[in-house]
Amino acid sequence: MNTLRKAVDFCIRHQKVLGYSTVSLLTAAMEYIFSTVVFKCPCNSGNMLYGLSFLLAPAFILLLLSYMVNARTWLLLTGKCSHEKQFQCSSGRGCTHLCQLLRITAKALVAPLTWMAVALLGADFYECAASGSSLTVHFFCKDNATDCQTQLLQVPCGKELPADIAQERLSLKAQSQLVGWFLIAAIMTIALISTCFSHCCSPVSYFQLKFWKIYSKKEHEIFETKAKEHATKLAERNTNCFFEDTDPAPFHTPSREDWQKISFLYTFNPQEQYYSMIHKYASTNRGKSTEFKEGGQDYTALEFVDEA
What we know:
The protein is an all-alpha fold. It contains 13 helices and no strands. Helix 2 crosses helix 6 (110-122). The chain crosses the membrane at residues 20-39, 51-70, 178-195.
């Protein structure tokens, strides 16, 4: 039992890393299936288009899916095009939204970059695309370009080729794997630098940041539970009113303005030290105090806690 509890605690403490690792492993497994089962290079003039489509199109689709499943994307966009919001833009708020969009994009890039890195290490997609590239033909076929290009198109299919052209297959694979390793190294370097920079610029200390993460997680869990309970009670009241032909009992539910107040993206302000918009709403007389403003006011501070 203790072992199970330790395993659960470990998963909770490292859920972000484990989440990214799971996404990366699933993406790598999907790439392996595509490269071994689905991908069949035509070995003709369509090599480049076919190879690039398998290298880039799934990565683009994964990027779009990552945007779609990230709740912060919809928190950032929902209601922003309504009539009331059309004339409420400011440079500070625009900067905050841009920073949030960059953070969402950074997370959304995990799956597509994993796809591209694994695909480049496997070399099948790159080899097919490069064998049909005019740049590759110019680089490898300097003398007899026509025959060499025809032979080069057959490289991904493993045809029996002359020794000098057969060596080019190894060159194409080597190029793909080198690009793959450079991409992985660049991703890890940028991730490390951005993490160091974000912690260096943190508006709170290490332990307060840990507390903030715990608070945000618990607030989200309680909000989900309370929202389900509240929605269930409201649905029961309205359904009973319909079927029993009775007048509905008084029932308080948050107003549209209240929902709007807690739906802004919050950036930590050291002068206020609220941990979320709900915290700020509760601490300012349900948002009626003059202290309550839309979103965080310290636009230079970075937001470190990820809301679900």
